[in-house]
Amino acid sequence: xxxxxxxxxxxxxxxxxxxxxxxxxxxxxxxxxxxxxxxxxxxxxxxxxxxxxxxxxxxxxxxxxxxxxxxxxxxxxxxxxxxxxxxxxxxxxxxxxxxxxxxxxxxxxxxxxxxxxxxxxxxxxxxxxxxxxxxxxxxxxxxxxxxxxxxxxxxxxxxxxxxxxxxxxxxxxxxxxxxxxxxxxxxxxxxxxxxxxxxxxxxxxxxxxxxxxxxxxxxxxxxxxxxxxxxxxxxxxxxxxxxxxxxx
Length: 248
What we know:
Number of helices: 11
Number of strands: 0
Structural class: mainly alpha
Radius of gyration: 23 Å
Oligomer: single chain
């Protein structure tokens, strides 16, 4: 059955929305592809660390991270409140005079210090550099809205495919190819049912670089350490925020 006039116009609007979102995401993909190429160069040219040395380095990273990530005790709340009252900028700023907003804002600087720590260890243990870069890339996907954009592209594509009929079959095929190329170019996990959807597809990265099992294990161990500490930073600041809310 042919589409009615209104159905055809709605389908055209869906295609238009896809094209706009695709154009913006494709610009980001170009920059991400360059980053991935640099990471691949690091991996293929790496001098791999002795497993014992790498394990020691991971312990050093974890210890250093523990000194960077804030606590969530009552004294930490007292320190936060006191600093706001003692700093004219914080006290007068419409956003940061709220201790909850201020604490949420420290995650960025914490990440910066964790990145610096990982990169400093990377001077002698090369695995830390690409492992941290891959974690930064996954954070970028979420922070810049790329995960949301890809999800929206998938939804639009599904709508056009299911609602717009044979007239739009060629357009659906084109949209499918464009979406697939974005996922591949950004090496993003493309299965929306996976808990890893929107993260960097590490297996694809490691396969492209030709890593063997031992090298993948080394990268996995370092990557897990970096990810765990960055997630701890978010968890700990969230806990501090909850305790401030309870006090207020």
